[in-house]
Amino acid sequence: MGRIDTITGLVADSRDMSIPLGVERLASSNDRLRAVLTVLALFVVAMIAMVVVGATIRAALIWGGAESEAMVLTALAMAAGEVVAFALVAGGYLRSAGPSVSIDWPSRREAGVIVGAVVLATALGAAQRAVLGELDPETTAYGADLVRAAPVVYAVLAIVGAVLAPIVEELLFRGAIQGRLRTVTGPVGAIGGASLLFVPLHLTVAPGSPLVALLGASMIGLTSVVFGVAYERTGTLTVPIVVHAASNAVFFVLIAGRVLL
User: Fold this and answer.
1) What is each CA distance from 109 to 53, 114, 174, 231, 239, in whole angstroms?
2) pTM of the entire structure?
3) DSSP of 150-201, one letter per residue?
4) Mutual orientation of helices 70-96 and 23-63 as an angle, nearest 10°?
5) What's the start-to-end Cα distance of the chain, in Å?
6) pLDDT tens, 118-142?
7) Which pairs count as long-range contacts for 210-213, CB under 8 Å and 24+ apart, including other chains?
8) What is the percent of the chain with per-residue pLDDT over 90, rounded to a whole number?
9) What is the rounded (10 degree) CA torsion for 63, 67, 71, 76?
10) CA nearest neighbour of 252 among 138, 188, 180, 156
11) Cβ pair 201, 47 in contact under 8 A
């Protein structure tokens, strides 16, 4: 009887017997719903803020007498809008209610993860350009045309795309969104959810038909999975930021190199 009493006492201590069975499961479902709604709200607010800030910057450029094609001005404004909006939304959430985020200098093992992830992300990017080039050659020619027509603008976009954008995008999608989802879905669901939301952000990366734009953005979503896995394997946001920045930089350099060399 002593053994039975001991086990009974442990069970009573571990759960309040006055709580009906199933309440814990219901609470878990509520937690998952709350997490999903939170990340959706973060994404929507960040996208709206990006458009508002980008439109404001574009209007300021036009008012200031900036002379360039409408598409170029829009690209510059939206790039700047993304940096400002994502930094404010993700930074504000992480500081107030979000999961803790580690930004540590990579260890030797983590450096190996970075190298492998950069190779994989670059390969996926090359596959994307090859597929899109077959479907719509003008899609992959836009970058080269911009280098010829406005090299300074291209250089600015390259700096933003290879330095600033990876920082704020990883802060939002890996630090805030993936980190929040991880608390209720585990790493696999968190990576999948963050990568799914990464797709609509990049629908304008491949200008052309809606099908080409969706295919291009979906392939970028696969690259997002690489960033997410790198984050989960190392636990520091520095790693996906470096991987993201390096893979973006490779393509900016290759596009410019084909034109200038």
Assistant:
1) 39, 9, 20, 13, 11
2) 0.85
3) -HHHHHHHHHIIIIIHHHHHHIIIIIIIIHHHHHHHHHHHHHHHHHHHHHHH
4) 140
5) 86
6) 999 999 999 988 888 888 777 767 7
7) 211/135, 212/132, 212/135, 212/136, 212/139
8) 57
9) -70
10) 156
11) yes
In angstroms, rounded to a whole number, what is the distance separating the alpha carbons of residues 234 and 111? 10
What is the CB neighbour count within 10 angstroms for residue 188?
Answer: 12
Tokens 């719903």, residue located: 33
Q: What is the pLDDT of residue 27?
A: 44
CA dist., res. 80 & res. 55, Å (int): 10
Reading the block at residue 251, the tokens are 């393509």
Given a contact cutoff of 8 angstroms between Cβ atoms, the answer to whether 232 and 187 are in contact is yes
C-beta separation of 202 from 217 below 8 A: yes
- Type and span of the H or E element at 25: helix 23-63
**Tokens at 163, concatenated:** 């330095």
- Could you tell me if 243 and 227 are in contact, meaning their C-beta atoms sit under 8 angstroms apart? yes
Q: Are 133 and 250 in contact (CB under 8 A)?
A: no
Q: Which residue from 246, 249, 241, 225 is spatially nearest to 103, judged by alpha carbons?
A: 241
Q: Name the nearest CA neighbour of 172 among 45, 56, 54, 36.
A: 45
Give the integer Cα–Cα distance in Å for 52 and 54.
5
Q: CA dist 1 to 10, 17, 85, 90, 239, Å?
A: 14, 21, 64, 56, 56
